[in-house]
């Protein structure tokens, strides 16, 4: 795996804009005007660990909202594939298309899986990485979670290159203001 480590606690969260499934622009700074942002990176609708994690987030969404925070998920997949994620998870929060992996690069979570894993993802799991992404690089994001405070700083993160290790809702809630 490439040498990636994700942005650290205390660092400024890079501003970004991306589009949702309705072709609406999402701007991080606008969301921060309303409260803290829970930013989650996923690999795609083909990933059972991503889907399980998003279902858990959805089940606790009201608890996150009660803390004054919002949830935004960043996916490398185009809109038609994000719609599959929503169908599989019941997600009622914003999921953004990370065209050209711009957001994943900015947050230092982008990597290229080994060739054998790309074959497993594409052939066995049906990921269609070249077709579902904006390019044919077959890169993915580490499924990291960042809590961004209203002042734009990262106040908490979960970053683990083991895709099976995800943020826990209890940790997210504990670290929201």
Secondary structure layout plus pairing:
Blueprint: E1 17-19, E2 25-27, H1 28-32, E3 37-41, H2 48-59, H3 61-66, E4 70-75, H4 79-89, E5 94-97, H5 102-106, E6 110-111, H6 115-124, H7 129-132, E7 140-141, E8 145-148, E9 154-158, H8 169-175
Parallel strand pairs: 3-4, 4-5
Antiparallel strand pairs: 1-2, 3-8, 6-7, 8-9
Describe this structure in words.
Residues 7-177 form the Thioredoxin domain. InterPro entries: AhpC/TSA, Thioredoxin-like_sf, Thioredoxin_domain, Thioredoxin_ResA/DsbE_sf. Helix content is 34%, strand content 19%. It is built from 8 helices and 9 strands. The longest helix is centred in the first third of the chain and has 12 residues, at 48-59. The chain is globular. It starts with 16 loop residues before the first strand and ends with a helix. 36% of the residues are buried.
SSE series: EEHEHHEHEHEHHEEEH
Name the CATH class: Alpha Beta
Query: Main beta sheet, described?
Result: 5 strands, mixed
Computed over alpha carbons, the radius of gyration is 15 Å
Instruction: Tell me the β content.
Output: 15-25%
Kindly state the number of beta strands. 9
Oligomer type? single chain
Uncertain stretches of 5 or more adjacent residues: none
Tell me the strand order in the biggest sheet.
5-4-3-8-9
Decide which structural class fits the backbone. alpha/beta
Shape: globular
CATH superfamily: Glutaredoxin
User: Which bin fits the share of residues in helices?
Assistant: 25-40%
Euclidean distance between termini CA atoms: 34 Å
Number of domains: 1
Q: Per CATH, which architecture?
A: 3-Layer(aba) Sandwich
Distinct helical segment count? 8
InterPro entries: AhpC/TSA, Thioredoxin-like_sf, Thioredoxin_domain, Thioredoxin_ResA/DsbE_sf
Domain Thioredoxin: 7-177
Protein name: Peroxiredoxin family protein
Organism: Flavobacterium frigidarium
């Amino acid at each position: 795996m490439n040498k990636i480590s994700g942005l650290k606690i205390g660092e400024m969260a890079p501003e970004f804009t991306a589009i949702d499934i309705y072709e609406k622009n999402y701007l991080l700074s606008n969301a921060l005007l309303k409260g803290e942002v829970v930013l989650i990176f996923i690999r795609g609708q083909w990933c059972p660990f991503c889907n399980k994690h998003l279902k858990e987030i959805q089940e606790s969404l009201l608890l996150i909202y009660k803390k004054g925070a919002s949830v935004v998920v960043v996916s490398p997949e185009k809109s038609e594939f994000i719609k599959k994620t929503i169908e599989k998870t019941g997600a009622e929060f914003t999921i953004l298309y990370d065209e050209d992996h711009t957001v994943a690069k900015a947050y230092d979570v982008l990597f290229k899986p080994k060739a054998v894993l790309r074959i497993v993802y594409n052939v066995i799991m049906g990921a269609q990485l070249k077709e579902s992404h904006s390019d044919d690089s077959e890169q993915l994001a580490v499924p990291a979670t960042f809590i961004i405070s209203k002042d734009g700083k990262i106040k908490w993160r979960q970053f683990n290159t083991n895709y099976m290790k995800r943020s826990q809702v209890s940790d997210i809630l504990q670290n929201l203001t």
